[in-house]
Amino acid sequence: MAAYQMSAPEAEALYRDVVGTSFANTRARVIQAVPHVDIDALDAQWAMGVEATMTKTVPLRPTVRETIDALAKTNVPMAVVTTTRTPLA
Q: What is the mean pLDDT of each run of 10 residues along the chain (89 residues)?
């Protein structure tokens, strides 16, 4: 994240802060954290990276498998939901 003048811990904290939030909220938080960023260029770069990853697999969030296994043992009704916009989702 040197290009954005952020340390690795700062970048990781920002990432954790925006995971699961809306596109608009994420853009606003990035602009707040890195005011000089070209947000449209960053969005395009990010989208290319996500697309490259999602053509192979849709990664699960941490603890998803364990949570599903635990819920399955209790017969709790479940559904799978994603905001991922790929054919693999």
A: 74 88 90 90 86 75 88 87 67
Number of domains comprising the chain:
1
CA angle 32, 36, 39 (to 5 degrees): 75
Q: Domain range holding 8? A: 2-58
Q: Where are the alpha helices (DSSP H) in the chain?
A: 8-18, 23-33, 39-54, 64-73
Question: CB-based contacts of 31: which residues, under 8 Å, 6+ apart?
Answer: 37, 39
pTM of the model: 0.54
Tokens, residue 33? 């954290």
19: buried, middle or exposed (CB in 10 Å: 19+, 13-18, 0-12)?
Answer: exposed
The C-alpha atoms of residue 52 and residue 42 are separated, in whole angstroms, by 15
